[in-house]
Specification:
- The complex is a heterodimer of chains A (275) and B (203).
- By secondary structure, chain A is α/β, with parallel strands linked by helices.
- Chain A contains nine helices and ten strands.
- Chain A has a seven-stranded mixed beta sheet with strand order 6-2-1-7-8-10-9.
- In chain A, strand 7, helix 9 and strand 8 form a beta-alpha-beta unit.
- The N and C termini of chain A lie far apart (49 Å).
- Chain B is α/β, with parallel strands linked by helices.
- Helix content of chain B is 33%, strand content 19%.
- Chain B has six helices and nine strands, in the order βαβαββββαβαβαβα.
- In chain B, helix 5 links the parallel strand 8 and strand 9.
- Classes of the chains: A alpha/beta (275), B alpha/beta (203).
- Chains A and B meet through helix 2 and helix 8 of A and strand 5, strand 6 and helix 3 of B.
Chain lengths: 275, 203
Amino acid sequence: MQEIEISQLRALTDLIKQRHDYDFGNYAMSSFRRRVQRIMELYKFASFDALMEKLRGSDAKYFQEFLSEITVNVTEMFRDPTFWVELRDTILPALLSDNKIISIWHAGCSSGEEVYSMAILLKEMNALDKVRIVATDIDNAILAKARDGVYSAKNMEVNQKNYERMQGLYSLDAYYKEQAGKAYLDKTLVKDVSYREHNLVSEVSFAKFDLILCRNVMIYFNQTLQNQVLKVFHESLYKNSFLAIGSKESLIWCEIANKFLVVNNEEKVYKKVKD
Amino acid sequence: MHNRFQLDDHYRAIVIGGSAGSFQVISKILSALPTDFELPIAMCLHRLRHVRNGFVEALNIKSTITIKEPYDKEPIRKGNIYLAPANYHLGVEIGNSFALTTEELLNNSRPAIDILLASAAQVYGKRLVGILLSGANKDGALGMKRIKDRGGLTVIQDPKECLIDTMPTSAQKITTIDHSLDVQSIIDLLLELNYKVKNAKDI
């Protein structure tokens, strides 16, 4: 298949902004191109113009499907086990030491594996009832999936291995039931989690948190948008509270990097030190 | 001397892909480069998804230039060698920086060679050199085609010399390969490239 040109991608992001009020103009174009190409193959569009035509219409249901495919929803439970060890042994104990309720925001929670991981970790720390969790994503459909906690059983092997590497207390299958190729996570784990639609690109801070996890989300944004989103996180954090990003992400090229201090460089945990 | 391959002097970056049987090859290449090698090199080598540490360290034992696993949006600088990190795809982004992603596996791989090669071809066009080494699947073939389609230079390890030749022969099947070379000749080509690029700049 012919590769999509940058000028075409610009026309596409302009159209989506105009017709559907979502702004992908500052997404990283190398991956955005692949997502668009993937959608064209998935829905068998004969040409780029055919895709444009479809999006020019006001078919809200189709746009929801487009949105679910354009965003990347590939994740694991306990991705980077050493990161979860850092949370369990250092970050969370520090936050919980004041014996007050702490708040955590999973920004770009996707299908919810990270939220379930957090709930399991907190449960094993006897702290699940001391934490208020908010999980957000741009895609309403994936939020429904995050709430359900039903995953393909074949993914559980990787999840189990990650759980073992972070030395969880039990075995991961203590938290789910398997049936007909699906793993059903124990929903009581996330019964108090607030799942809500939120677009990091266009929306502002809505609350203050002690810990924000936004791992492998900003990698889909260009530097301009990363700067903008970091400002939202900065505004959404109490002073001396924490931001965790993906292990191969860095704040050093961001404008307000100096308002954060690296707490753990290997696991990419930062502390907000300046207002 | 320095004209065996009749290379142009307009190249700005090199991308290398490899899989099964490529570790020794890449080590040999890296040990033969001068420390002032000019062009940035980005490598995507198939590796274990859940082992974050150890691989770049193993390559660095032999390499004359310290190899780094880039962060997302890290600027691509001349004189540097980069390696795709475990469990991330590595791409080249507009504005001459790297972009990492956690997209689906491609060709059963993350990092996938096709993603690095095709995205680099988009940014560098004819100023890109693509090198594909020994490997057991077809990852990288489409990427080599993208490089050729945009006017870049395509080089494969001579299938006869490869431990497993599926990767270079898959590329041969779908695009024009400018040079099919044994390891020593790949090194010679890189040295000639370095000579040409450096001298073009001095004029």
